[in-house]
């Protein structure tokens, strides 16, 4: 049986073994932190640096660095977990970053954890913000960002890019998680409990909330600093209430990864509160806006939009088949459908799958014919148009429709019978004689997209166009 003296000696030996390396880590962390800010204009202060009882965790308290211009970075607690040279994680608690100058701003976070960082210090001399967070995983709780100014800092932290309008705003995020962070890519980014408010900007003062946002496969293209691609984006339950926009969105999903031959966009239940937006508009504009709202919504003042855009491609040697289906539904107003099937020849020397997966438009490809069919369906919009349009011109509905028919024939004479048939079909829908207008196009073979776009008025003579109403 061990005596009391033996037990005390054994405990002292265990403590000595466990605290020895950790104390060395604490000394190294303090030395590294002080060396990082040594010679940098400004004042750096550091509180107590200590180790855990059993090692494997080194903590620095009350870090603060204040630059001569007033910029400030402070951290209540900086923790290095695991091996000091190759940490399991670095944790920052009570983070506060304040900026001054052209763009006044502040970033705070209750807790930030960086898993498997490149070293015990998240930032170093000459390292950019992107390089600081090269890690397996980043999680942030209680994130808040607020700022004001007429510019937005560039990605490299240099001269700010001019913003569209000076504004002041604040955004908060309850939880953020990002995995597989590299200098030019993020494997997955998820945020929840997002809310914000702004005192200015493109849509005016207001506030917004977003329940969840998920981004997968975000990558910056080589050699293109501001061009990025993503594999997938999803957002749910967005609400916006601002001076020039009042809207709610149930969900938006974007499949941007075309390497598998298909992608698309789906927007579900975007509801625009036109009545509220009109109330906040300048008084001189409200009459015209109410007329437009009545045509679109039948007097309800609320317009709901749903949209689906699906596209796919199939490589056939040096040729390819591009196809797509799209549909936009606007509540009690209209529905628009578009079906496209285009055989094309690709530029010489390209690898088809790589070229098609990154293709943003049809520039450089040769059309080998193809079919495009679009259908416009009246869900109430066209039946309401004559009364409102006639009232705005101070004439009767019959006279308005007669003028519209005359104008359609005149445009048909100038631009061709195909365009005239389209305009005639729209008048038929306004008169209640038709509920759908379908246009079927057959494209010419061996034609470049650039040449077709250069002379749009000559398109009817270059393609086959069939117009039907029903």
TrEMBL record:
Span of the signal peptide: 1-24
Keywords on record: Signal
Name of the protein: DUF2125 domain-containing protein
Organism: Halomonas beimenensis
